[in-house]
Every structure is written in C-alpha cells, then in structure tokens.
Design goal:
The complex is a heterodimer of chains A (about 110) and B (about 110).
Chain A (H helix, E strand, L loop, with lengths): L4 E3 L2 E4 L5 E6 L6 E7 L6 E7 L2 E5 L6 E5 L5 E5 L8 E8 L4 E3 L3 E5 L1
Chain B lengths: L8 E5 L4 E6 L7 E8 L6 E6 L4 E2 L4 E4 L5 E6 L8 E9 L13 E6 L1
Parallel strand pairs in B: 1-9
Antiparallel strand pairs in B: 2-7, 3-4, 3-8, 5-6, 6-7, 8-9
Classes of the chains: A mainly beta (about 110), B mainly beta (about 110).
Chain lengths: ~110, ~110
C-alpha cells in the first residue's frame, strides 16, 4: 500500500506566478490536509478537505486555495506568489485518529 | 489552540533511554496529546497519542501527568535513526477531524 504521495518534489517559480501542487492520499483515506513549513519552523496548517469540501482553514490568505477530487486526491493552488511563499508544502491524509504525511513539495520563489 | 512548551534541543547516546518533556498547562478536557517526529528531509511521522492514561506502542511510550498539564515521550533505547525533531501537539479528539498546531519542537541528537 503506497503512502501519501506528492508531486512535484521540487519547484522553482518567480514572484507573481501561480503554482499547483498535487497530493494522493493513502488508500481509503478521505480527509486531506495541507501544511506549509518554512525553514527551521514547524508546519503551519493551511486547510483541510473532506468530501470535496473545505472543512477547516488556517490563517492563510485567499491566494491559497484547494480542491479535492472524488477519488480523494487534492490540489493546492497558490496565486500571485510572494518570496515568503518559499517553503516545504506538506500534504497529510487521515482516516481515524492519525495523520500520515507525504514527503512534501519544496517550493522556491525567486 | 492550547499551547505546548518543549525544550529546543536534547542529546542522547545510542541505546540509552530518552525522555522528551512537554508542558501544556492550558490543556482542556477534550484535548488529546499527540507526538509526531520529523526526520531530515521527510514529512512528520506519527509517534503516539493519548488522553489520560499512559500509552505504549512499538515506537515509544507516553507518560501523562495526573493533572494532564505535562507529558513525557519516552524512547526506551535510542538509535541513530531516532534523531529527529519531535513535536508535542494538542488536538481536539481524533486528529483526523481537526488541524494539528505544530510548535518549534525538540531537536533530538543521538550520539553513537
């Protein structure tokens, strides 16, 4: 059984551009959460999706949006990229009581 | 969100026990205590969680104070592969329904 997978592993963008990150949850996991981890910091919660709806949202601007598909996979979109958006973006899937994290996507904004 | 306080760093020798403390004086009755760890270049990994009673699994033990204002993650025999950042997190109920609020965590260094 594959764990949580994310793509791409690394990405370089310039300020003002838009980016889409992808996540495939563990088999059978219906809840997907996204986190942003700046260098040297703990992960910060962005939002969570369940049954294709955003269920909870952290303190992130509307430039950050997401989507969950019927197969439970998810996308994170970030518009109008800023230098401060450079970070490791983590996806976590969960089913009951435990979160399983993917390896993350390293986004660099130049 | 209730806050946790952990030491910035700790060191241990291989094959010795490690006790990682966490203070959470504002914990509420419905908060579970969760521990995750993050190895270099990887996403966080679930370690253990509990509510009131001490918990054991194949990775670690969790000792929870009687007043629940503090807890300790115990690695019984540290290995080099246990070197990671350890996060103590409070979450309402089962974490699949709620966000995890990570702090700075404790950087554990294990010496051979």
């Amino acid at each position: 059984d594959a764990g949580v997978t994310q793509s791409p592993t690394h990405l370089i963008k310039t300020r003002g551009q838009q980016v889409t990150l992808r996540c495939s949850p563990k088999s059978g996991h219906d809840t997907v959460s996204w986190y942003q981890q700046a260098l040297g910091q703990g992960p910060q919660f962005i939002f969570q999706y369940y049954e294709e709806e955003e269920r909870q949202r952290g303190n992130f601007p509307d430039r950050f949006s997401g989507h969950q598909f019927p197969n439970y996979s998810s996308e994170l979109n970030v518009n109008a990229l800023l230098l401060g958006d450079s970070a490791l973006y983590l996806c976590a899937s969960s089913h009951s009581g435990r979160n399983f994290f993917g390896p993350g996507t390293r986004l660099t904004v130049l | 969100d209730a806050k946790t306080t952990q030491p910035n760093s700790m060191e241990s020798n291989e094959e010795e026990p490690v006790h990682l403390p966490c203070n959470h004086s504002t914990i509420s009755g419905t908060d579970y205590i969760h521990w995750y760890r993050q190895l270099p270049s990887q996403g966080p990994e679930y370690v253990i969680h509990g509510l009131t009673s001490n918990v054991n699994n194949r990775m670690a033990s969790l000792a929870i104070a009687e007043d629940r204002k503090s807890s300790t993650l115990i690695l019984h025999r540290a290995t080099l592969r246990d070197a990671a950042v350890y996060y103590c997190i409070l979450a309402r109920g089962g974490t699949s329904y709620g966000k995890l609020t990570f702090g700075q965590g404790t950087i554990l260094t294990v010496h051979p």
